[in-house]
Write a structure and sequence with these properties.
1931 residues; seven-stranded antiparallel sheet; 39% helix; 13% strand
């Protein structure tokens, strides 16, 4: 029984405190003294007027709402506020005003009106929530007052405060069986329900003595919340999705704020949200109505549910982490920073469906043609219960089986229950579910467990639902209608619980009349004494009255069906097949039967199987069977295998151990052991410590509670048999059922026991918990203390202390004696370190013990004893471990794979001996077995650091491929990134320290150091690697230190290296300064000192005499000054340089014997830079115009960046146009150069003169062109063309169309208008190219010179018609090279010189139409762009880990890298320059600093324009000239030294090689060198094996003495300092660099396609050969024949050996295993010659002879036979897109390459060649090759007649040939059968032969066209068709 109301309070407006905001004050309260069980809540006056106390000029209607106040004990007080407005007379106000006359704050509007109304509130404070009863009672009090009823107010208030009602227990009678539907009718609510006892009715019926009577609806079950219609109202206001979001937010502890202008709605919404959370109870801040003065509460960090009036809406906008629900607007606002975890699917969808069916039943039948008559939603109150029933159903689904995861750890004196969260989530397969995880961790669920966990208590609707109706819920899961009927039943029970008496027999009071309402009397003060008398009288009566007790029905709470069964039926938990479990069982059986070989075979499969939960459970069960009396002693190998399996099992368990695997293994790791020596035993726990689960406090708690429950259960079990069974059952869920049953029974019996028995049982339970705590302290020390405590291992949990990490601590035997000894040497610190470990473990165990003992009710004495024992336990265990550790070191080591030593290059030395590591798989899946190949990785081996390379050699850990050797290596100089990583090895299951090493040769090594490698050794390895990667100076690189001790490289002092360098450069610069202005220098040949004599560098330098002959001053030099003969010796070295040889070849600067130059030559070789004083990065000899003196060069160089002024580097032999290169202009140079000539200049400044000299310089270049001098200034297009292109094709006049498009694409931006070319963006004095229609007239058709890459045979722009060009001008059809034909080249006159400049620099200034040059502004790729692009390219081609994200596929990453678009831009510019040069205009490339993009472009232009550079010799010369001599910064861009480390690696040269590779793919017959040659250079330009690509310029190479050292330098023959020498030597031995398809056309100009779609990814980036590593160090390639000889003797007995072998992707080198036919034949030829005792002929000589023979045969034939002109007559003529040529189809295909060369045609398409190519060299009789022949009529081309031909079907050559007659020997045409698609009968067509039957016609369809044939009759036709089809099927 409880009081209906605790306090009655009258609150009014406080007239004394009117300044500022108004306030309320309590006028009266009853009783005045607080109840003992219910103190008076403070602050009621704030809640009566939450928006603030105010006076108003007009009377407001009375209002009622319910506020909720929570006291300090978390008890809720329900405050019912009834507020009405009373008129305040002026006298009252004036009294207040006079007392505050000085105040000026008050509101004049209210102060001076005639009548003012103030609020007054009647408040009832109660612990019970009976909103309607309180509304009625307060309304009655108000009515008694306003209606002036005879009843005294004191009587009404007194009766109200003395009402006592039962808290719960409504009508229990069975005959109250009205259905839910009948209840929903309003009239039934007015009917009396029969069968109520009078006593019960009197208890629930109250009257306040004013003629009133009402029945209080006390709920039947107190635990179910009362909601009225608040839940339905909430859903109507916000909608299903919003309320579900709020529901999830409340359960996952977010902050929720309701807004509404109605206070009662705020209360109802909060009540409704709490109601749907049942059975969970909200335990955070709950304030349904928050007063405005307390709004700062919203800033609290804790979760809350709060309601606030919409009046304060603006003040809630700044809350960043609060979910705001606006009830009036129906919106829910979730801030960005808040993430709400929603219900798991499919529960969310099912809940939404059910709610929709409740709230909108018509939705389902809305589309029905005949909808049901009545399908209206239920009334609001019924709907409310239906919604709550849905949420009850939802919680039953969510918490289903929760009682199976309760641990009962004490029964007496009070049950103590704990919930095993991990087991619950694991069995429900919801361990990944965010929502449920948060709910189970929340405060609400903790309260749920403590309230509902008790095994013996009263039960309610939820207990019944979650235990007894699980099966019904599961069956109705997929049937919403069955679920709905269940929901309606639940709703009916909820309604009956809330409304046990449908009759509310209260006489309704009439509303107060209008006149009284407008002029009420003030509410009178009540008589305190009278009210108190009522209260006292009632209290006395209550004491004497007999207690009304309703007996509580306690019972055992049912648990429902076991959890495991319900989940495994419909979950994927048991996904492992029975076969896998069988493998696990067999392996364990083999181990215990000592069949170790069998076990070893099964081990990889077992480790894979243990990824699944079922296999892990199976392992624990199997191992349990082998434990006898808690002990299982094993031998060493058995122990190792068992430990390995345990580790694998634990590795895949999460730290939560949701499946109980670690829990099941915990007793096993203390059972399995092995004997190490006398009295020393090593247990398995010392080898399985490296798992996070052991440092998870929740795991230990759950394990402890589980064991305590078992022991408590055993304590109360009567029979010993049960106890024995229980021990065998360990871990079975049935045991838990009996524990709860037992606890329930004991709780029931507890009141009947005597005090002594009760005390005894409490003590027994307490001592059980205490003994388990000691046991667990031991267990935890076992698993937390490392075997070698001196190693100070990091215990992973932060709670375990912050001790430093030192590799592993699970030494199963003496894996590394040396490792252990290295630690023993530091034993001086051992005690201190081990004590640190001990302290952290003691702290961890103490925390655990404190927590579990406090929860389990252990006495303080016992707890203190435990704290005393724990340090002793730990120390004792440490001593035991020390002995075990000592003994384990004496064990024989584990059989690990032998470390394989790598083969080293001559001069390469080991810096560090091999360290045992594991090579871990990276993102390339080919080697892991995932793509079908063998699992080559993970591999175990060693990493070696040499002076040149980083090498891994080892064998795969998978025994199936264990005999294969895996090699990965890269040059140390190519290392671009090194990163520390942690690696989990699947074999040993430990997290190892590792390194990820990435190389710019596209190698990636992810290595994990083995446990035997000490961490300090790994650190030494890293330091050595860094020293080698970034030496202080370039002299520290391998190319310089080759052949010397590696220690020198590592330990050499930086000071020694730099000293000589500094002195050297100082002296050189000094001498250079002395000789500036003197014309000539004579120098002896410089010999580089050896490394050992580097200290005497200075003396040698001094001996190097520089004789300077005094000459005339430079000012007096004339233009015709010549090199004097006295300087021959000086310049001899320079003349020998590659660039000088090339200049002579091009006729740019020939040097006669007297070194005099012919004056009529336009260009001369200048020696102005001989001492590298004009430009440090240019070569010593430069080509400049004949007319420009050296003094001018010295001046104009200042205008250009890095002084790199324009010099000529190539000349077109046909058009005599020249290619120049320079850096970009300085900013001042740009202004001066392009300044308007009309600007007034009174005194010519220095800048002006330089600008004029620049113009003269360019004019001199233009004058040097024959076209300029011959035209005599006529520079119209026609004159320009005819003057110098007499010998060339007429169609060159047409090329402007193509050029215009190229210009547009290269230089035009999107913003450019179609008719102009970057108009306004050019800031130069040169002319601007405008693009419009060209006026070109020509007759006839002709083909432009040169070659365009083409996809189709018609790809050449042959027969270009000007009319067609005119038509195309308006369209944007693509050109073959990636240009647009949209706009054509419109200038009537072609410029003589084009300057390709950077768009960013050429801004400002005016145009001038009188110059002969034009500037083409283009956007160049920045160096940083290339660097970033390359990084992304490396990550795309060699990813560090496999990505499951579809957006991170290889192609997507490649696109993101933008590498291809950078290649496209470089190629595009190059093609433009080629076009301009070929059209007769000179071009100057003037970009950036002139050593990156400029070098790329000029090199590619020369390669495309000049066939010489496409030979081996020419390409070498091109690289030496343009890249080395002209100062590309190889050292800086390659980050080769410490100084350039910060700049990073930028692959400018690699980008150039990739461009060459793209051109090579499109024109494979134009290059003498192979693709391997390009890869070789790409590898070695970063490898630092050769000195060729070191240093940044010729100046630096001379400074170090490496430029002229090759000749006369005595060095060991095997050490090549130049990559070119090495290539030459290798090329003599093997044709690996040679391209057999080389068949160049004379003076061929290549024009490749530059579209990104035409570019291919270079296989250099993606290919890998794990068998031998990168194949670019030729000496390291294994010789396969020797291997075969070694293997043969062992296999002689086994019979004939197959020559077949498996070729593995990513492992074998395809070029070696499957060599092309020509290489194979040349190799066979050499081996045959060797066998015959002949000296083998060089391959090149053999090849040249064969070519000569082939050409001779071709010339001997009178007509070109089919075989000699094979590829011309075939359809393969112009298809130049071949990527690879398969020459290995047949050994006889040797002639294919020769034919290609002889005929000088393009290469075949990708894939297999036509069969005719393979058989063309057979000279056989006709009969052999004529399978079937006869006459067929063949239809000719369009408008041509049918003609009879003699057709021959040749099965051998697989072709259909035809001749004019049978006797004719010359074939007229060939149809390749490989191209035939169908042979079908056809109908006669127009012009067919007459008198031939219809069935004689047939059609032959090929991939190209359809041939129409006709035989003489249908029989012959059938024969032809049959024979052709037989041919096709045979193929």
């Amino acid at each position: 029984m409880a009081r209906l109301a605790d306090y009655f309070v009258v609150v009014g407006y406080d007239l004394d405190k009117r300044e500022g905001e108004g306030q309320g004050r309590i006028l009266q309260r009853f009783p005045e003294k607080d109840w003992e069980d219910s103190p008076f809540p403070q602050g009621i006056e704030l809640f009566c007027q939450p928006s603030g106390w105010q006076l108003v000029p007009e009377q407001q209607p009375a209002s009622f709402f319910m506020a909720v106040l929570t006291d300090i004990n978390s008890e809720r007080n329900y405050c019912a506020c009834f507020t009405f407005w009373e008129a305040l007379d002026n006298t009252q106000l004036q009294k207040c005003e006079t007392s505050k006359a000085d105040e000026a704050d008050e509101d004049p509007q209210i102060a001076h009106t005639e009548r003012v109304f103030g609020p007054k509130s009647l408040v009832l404070v109660s612990r019970l929530d009976h909103t309607e009863v309180f509304r009625n009672c307060l309304s009655l009090v108000y009515m008694v007052h306003v209606e002036r009823l005879t009843v005294p107010l004191e009587t009404v208030v007194g009766n109200l405060l003395t009402c006592v009602i039962p808290i719960a227990g409504g009508a229990q009678s069975e005959d109250s069986s009205c259905s839910l539907d009948s209840l929903s009718c309003d009239w039934l609510l007015t009917c009396l329900q029969p069968g109520l006892e009078e006593r019960e009715e009197s208890l629930r019926t109250i009257t306040l003595g004013a003629g009133d009577r009402q029945v209080i609806q006390t709920p039947v079950t107190d635990s179910l919340p009362v909601s009225g219609s608040s839940v339905a109202q909430l859903f109507r206001q916000l909608g299903i999705a919003n309320v579900l979001g709020l529901f999830c937010a409340a359960l996952t502890e977010h902050k929720i704020l309701f807004l509404s202008s109605s206070y009662q709605r705020l209360t109802d919404a909060c009540r409704g949200l709490l109601a749907i959370m049942f059975p969970l109870k909200y335990s955070f801040t709950y304030v349904p109505i928050l007063p405005g003065k307390l709004l700062e509460v919203l800033s609290t960090p804790t979760p809350f549910i709060i309601g606030v009036n919409s009046f304060f809406k603006s003040e809630t906008q700044e809350l960043l982490d609060v979910i705001i629900a606006d009830l009036d607007g129906g919106t829910v606002t979730i801030p960005e920073c808040v993430h709400i975890s929603l219900l798991p699917e499919p529960l969310l969808q099912q809940t939404q469906t059910l709610l929709s069916m409740v709230l909108d039943p018509e939705l389902e039948v809305a589309d029905h043609a005949f909808p049901p008559v009545s399908n209206q939603p239920s009334s609001l109150k019924i709907q409310d219960k239906e919604i709550r029933a849905v949420f009850l159903w939802l919680f039953a689904r969510l918490f289903q089986g929760y009682r199976w995861c309760l641990h009962i750890i004490r029964i007496h004196p009070e049950p103590v229950i704990r919930f095993h969260k991990a087991a619950f989530l694991g069995k429900r397969a919801l361990s990944e579910d965010d929502f449920l995880m948060k709910v189970l961790d929340g405060m609400a669920f903790a309260g749920f467990v403590s309230e509902r966990g008790a095994p013996y208590r009263t039960t309610d609707l939820f207990d019944d639902l979650v235990a007894n109706q699980v099966e019904r819920i599961r069956q109705a899961e997929c049937n919403p209608h069955r679920t709905m009927s269940h929901i309606k039943e639940l709703a009916e029970q909820l309604f009956k619980n809330e409304n046990p008496y449908p009759v509310v027999s209260m006489h309704k009071l009439q509303r107060p009349s209008e006149n009284i309402q407008t002029q009420p009397f003030p509410f009178p003060p009540l008589d305190d004494v009278a009210v108190q008398l009522f209260i006292d009288h009632a209290a006395a009566k209550l004491k004497t009255a007999p207690p009304v007790v309703k007996a509580e029905v306690k019972a055992m709470v049912p648990s429902g069906p076991p959890l495991g069964d319900t989940v495994d039926k419909n979950s994927h938990v048991m996904a492992n097949s029975a076969r896998r479990l069988e493998v696990v069982r067999n392996c364990i059986t083999y181990i215990f039967e000592n069949k170790m070989l069998e076990a070893k075979k099964l081990m990889p499969a077992v480790l894979r199987a243990l990824k699944g939960r079922a296999a892990r459970v199976c392992l624990t069960q199997e191992l349990n069977q082998h434990v006898l009396q808690n002990r299982a002693v094993l031998d060493d190998q058995q122990f190792d295998y068992i430990v390995r399996m345990m580790n694998c099992t634990l590795q895949d368990c999460s730290h939560m151990d949701e499946h109980g695997i670690a829990a099941a293994l915990l007793p096993l790791v203390t059972a399995f052991c092995r004997k190490l020596g006398a009295g020393i035993t090593q247990f398995a726990y010392s080898c399985v410590q490296e798992h996070t689960v052991w440092t998870n406090m929740q795991f230990w708690e759950a394990m402890f509670y589980s064991d305590v429950q078992n022991h408590i259960r055993a304590l109360y079990l009567e029979s010993e048999d049960d106890q024995g069974n229980h021990e065998q059952e360990g871990g079975d869920s049935r045991r838990e059922l009996s524990a709860l049953e037992l606890a329930s029974e004991q709780s029931r019996l507890w009141p009947t026991l005597s005090k002594e028995l009760q005390t005894e049982r409490v003590q027994k339970e307490e001592s059980t918990v205490f003994s388990q705590a000691i046991h667990y302290a031991n267990r935890m020390s076992y698993l937390l203390l490392p075997l070698d405590t001196s190693k100070n291992r990091l215990l992973r949990s932060s709670g375990l202390g912050d001790v430093e990490s030192v590799s592993n601590s699970y030494v199963t035997n003496s894996i590394a004696g040396s490792m252990a000894e290295s630690y023993d040497t530091e034993s001086g610190f051992e005690d201190a370190e081990s004590s640190d470990v001990a302290n952290s473990v003691v702290r961890f165990i103490n925390r655990f013990v404190d927590k579990v003992c406090n929860e389990s009710g252990v006495t303080n004495e016992h707890l203190k004893a435990l704290h005393t024992m724990i340090p002793d336990i730990v120390q004792m265990h440490i001593e035991t471990l020390d002995a075990v550790h000592r003994e384990s070191k004496r064990l024989p080591p584990i059989q690990k794979p032998k470390l394989l030593r790598p083969t080293l290059l001559p001069g390469e030395e080991l810096v560090m001996e091999g360290m045992r590591v594991h090579l871990v798989p990276d993102g390339r899946e080919e080697a892991t077995g995932l793509m079908g190949g063998p699992p080559l990785l993970l591999a175990e081996g060693a990493i070696f650091l040499t002076t040149y390379r980083l090498i891994f050699r080892g064998t795969p850990t998978d025994p199936l491929v264990g005999e294969q050797v895996v090699t990965r290596s890269f040059p140390i100089a190519s290392l671009t990134k090194e990163k520390r990583i942690s690696v989990s090895l699947p074999t040993d299951q430990f997290v190892q320290e590792g390194l990820q090493l990435r190389s710019c040769t596209f190698q990636l090594m992810k290595i994990a150091f083995d446990e035997e490698v000490a961490s300090d050794l790994a650190e030494v390895f890293r330091k050595h690697m860094h020293k080698l990667r970034y030496p202080p100076h370039v002299q520290g690189t391998f190319a310089f230190t080759i052949g010397q001790s590696g220690k020198l490289v590592v330990e050499h002092k930086a000071k020694d290296k730099n000293q000589s360098l500094k002195t050297l450069s100082k002296n050189l610069v000094k001498s250079a300064k002395r000789t500036i202005g003197r014309q000539y220098v004579t120098r002896k040949k410089y010999t580089a000192p050896t490394w050992e004599n580097r200290g005497s560098f200075q003396s040698e330098l001094d001996e190097d005499e520089i004789s300077v002959s005094e000459e005339v001053e430079p000012t007096s030099l004339t233009l015709s000054s010549t090199i004097r003969s006295s300087d021959r010796q000086t310049m001899s070295n320079a003349v020998e340089r590659a660039c000088c040889r090339d200049y002579q070849r091009l006729g740019l600067g020939t040097l006669s014997n007297s070194l005099t130059r012919s004056k009529n030559e336009p260009f001369r070789i200048s020696t102005v830079n001989r001492m590298y004083t004009v430009c440090r990065s240019y070569p010593g000899l430069l080509i400049v115009p004949q007319t420009i003196p050296d003094s001018t060069l010295q001046r104009i160089c200042r205008c250009y960046r890095q002084n790199r002024f324009p010099v000529v580097c190539w000349r077109n032999t046909r058009t005599k146009a020249v290619l120049l290169r320079s850096a970009g202009l300085h900013a001042k140079g740009v202004v001066g150069f392009f300044k308007s000539p009309n600007a007034p200049a009174t005194v010519p400044s220095q800048a002006d003169s330089i600008s004029l000299e620049q113009e003269k310089y360019l004019q001199a270049i233009i004058s040097s062109m024959p076209s300029y001098s011959e035209n005599s200034g006529r520079n119209t297009l026609s004159g320009f063309t005819s003057a110098h292109m007499n010998s060339s094709d007429l169609s060159d006049r047409l090329r402007p169309a193509k050029l215009g498009a190229l210009f547009k694409q290269v230089a035009g931006g999107k913003e450019d208008t179609p008719g102009t070319f970057s108009r306004g963006a050019l800031g130069q004095r040169a002319k601007v190219i405008s693009l419009s229609q060209p006026k070109v007239s020509t007759k006839g058709k002709s083909s432009p010179r040169g070659k365009w890459g083409s996809i189709r045979g018609s790809g050449r722009l042959s027969a270009y018609n000007p009319d067609v060009g005119t038509r195309l001008a308006g369209k944007e059809s693509p050109q073959p090279n990636g240009a647009l034909t949209e706009a054509l080249f419109l200038r009537q006159q072609r410029a003589f010189l084009y300057i390709i400049g950077d768009k960013a620099q050429l801004k400002g200034g005016k145009q001038d139409s009188f110059q002969q040059w034009e500037v083409v502004p283009i956007e160049v790729c920045d160096v940083r762009q290339v660097k970033n692009s390359f990084k992304k390219l490396m990550k795309a081609c060699v990813p560090s880990s496999a990505s499951s994200d579809p957006n991170m596929s290889f192609m997507r990453c490649l696109e993101d890298s933008e590498w291809m678009s950078l290649l496209h831009r470089v190629l595009q510019v190059s093609v433009l320059v080629v076009e301009l040069l070929d059209a007769g205009s000179s071009v100057m490339v003037s970009l950036e600093d002139g050593w990156d993009v400029t070098t790329q472009v000029v090199s590619l232009v020369q390669l495309l324009s000049d066939p010489y550079y496409r030979t081996l010799e020419g390409f070498r010369l091109l690289v030496e000239k343009e890249w080395l001599s002209f100062g590309h910064r190889f050292s800086h861009r390659g980050a080769q030294t410490l100084a350039s480390q910060s700049s990073g690696f930028t692959p400018i040269f690699l980008q150039f090689l990739d461009c060459v590779h793209q051109i090579h793919l499109q024109f494979p017959m134009e290059f003498e060198f192979s693709q391997y040659y390009l890869k070789f250079l790409a590898y070695h330009y970063v490898s630092n094996r050769f000195r060729t690509f070191l240093l940044d310029s010729d100046y630096e190479r001379i400074e170090l003495g490496v430029l002229y050292e090759e000749k006369g330098d005595r060095r060991p023959p095997q050490v090549c300092k130049s990559v070119w020498d090495y290539i030459d030597r290798l090329n003599k031995k093997t044709p690996v660099f040679y391209n057999y398809m080389f068949a160049p056309e004379d003076d061929e100009v290549l024009r490749p396609y530059t579209f990104i779609s035409n570019l291919k990814v270079w296989d250099f980036y993606t290919e890998e050969t794990l068998s031998e590593g990168p194949p670019y160090d030729w000496e390291l390639r294994p010789q396969r024949p020797e291997k075969v000889q070694d293997e043969n003797p062992d296999k002689t007995e086994s019979g004939p050996k197959s020559l077949r072998r498996v070729v593995w992707p990513c492992y074998d080198s395809l070029s070696k295993v499957l060599p092309d036919s020509i290489s194979k034949l040349l190799q066979d030829l050499q081996s045959l010659e060797t066998e015959l005792g002949m000296s083998p002929e060089k391959w090149k000589d053999t090849w040249d002879k064969l070519k000569a023979m082939q050409r001779q045969e071709g010339r001997l034939e009178s007509k070109p036979s089919f075989s000699s002109s094979l590829l011309i007559s075939s359809n393969l003529g112009h298809q130049r897109r071949c990527q690879t040529v398969y020459l290995q189809d047949s050994p006889s295909s040797l002639t294919l390459g020769l034919d290609c060369e002889a005929s000088a045609t393009s290469t075949p398409t990708q894939g297999r060649q036509s069969t005719s190519a393979l058989y063309s060299q057979f000279q056989s009789s006709e009969s052999e090759n004529r399978s079937f022949e006869g006459i067929l009529f063949k239809k000719g081309a369009l408008l041509k007649p049918w003609k009879p031909r003699w057709f021959v079907l040749d099965k051998t050559k697989h072709q259909l040939r035809y001749y004019e007659t049978r006797q004719d020997k010359e074939c007229k045409g060939v149809i390749e059968l490989a191209e035939v698609e169908t042979v079908v009968l056809a109908t006669p067509t127009m012009g067919a032969p007459k008198n031939v039957e219809e069935k004689a016609f047939f059609d032959l369809k090929t991939t190209r066209r359809v041939y129409n044939f006709c035989a003489q009759d249908s029989y012959l036709t059938a024969q032809w068709i049959e024979n052709i089809q037989n041919c096709l099927s045979d193929a």
